[in-house]
Design goal:
Helix content: 40-55%
Number of helices: 9
CATH topology: Rossmann fold
Largest sheet: 4 strands, parallel
Number of strands: 6
Number of domains: 1
Distance between the termini: 26 Å
CATH architecture: 3-Layer(aba) Sandwich
CATH superfamily: Nitrogenase molybdenum iron protein domain
Shape: globular
Order of helices and strands: HHHHHHEEEHEHEHE
Length: about 220
Amino acid sequence: MLLKLLSDPKEAATMLAAIGDRTNNPKSQEARQTVDTIIEQVRLGGDQALKHYTEKFDGAKLEELRVPPEEIQRAWQLTAEPLQEALQLAKTRIKTFHAKQLPADIKLEGPHGEKLRRRWRAVERAGLYVPGGRASYPSTVLMNAIPAEVAGVKHRVMVTPPGPDGQINSTVLAAAHLAGIDEIYRVGGAQAIAALAWGTESIPRVDVISGPGNLYVT
């Protein structure tokens, strides 16, 4: 595919234009209408709407949205040692890299005693979206949670869709434990983003949301 694109600049330009304008096509417009409805239902219905959509889209009928902290800890304990070591290595590398990105405060004093400052402060709450369901994305957990930790975010809230049995992938939970996240909710899709943006009875409203997702999540 890469060779084909390089040999046909016009086709490459057309494909790049389509990628860069994903929201301006019939499929995207249809998705936007669906998402608008989901957002409004979550805003008005809270947890009940989240449970409804989780059953509808993920096939999981849930009583509780939050994953118990002991379940997160147990996932780490049951993780094979080689995988634990790999996750720990990834955590160290991610933390080292992002620590070098921290901006420095500026403080200046002028000749007449005037003071100028620029101060950087982390947001209070960050929402972390981790795709799930049929796939496992422990790397996404680390690459969202650790930069937030380095930045000084006090509260990190993770959402990820469950499988039909209502469970979260154990490796994803293990990565969350390693990253120090103990507030995880079994909800995905646009409904999870709406919950983080508006807040529900269970899920707190956050200041910023990060993480990859499909067209509906985006």
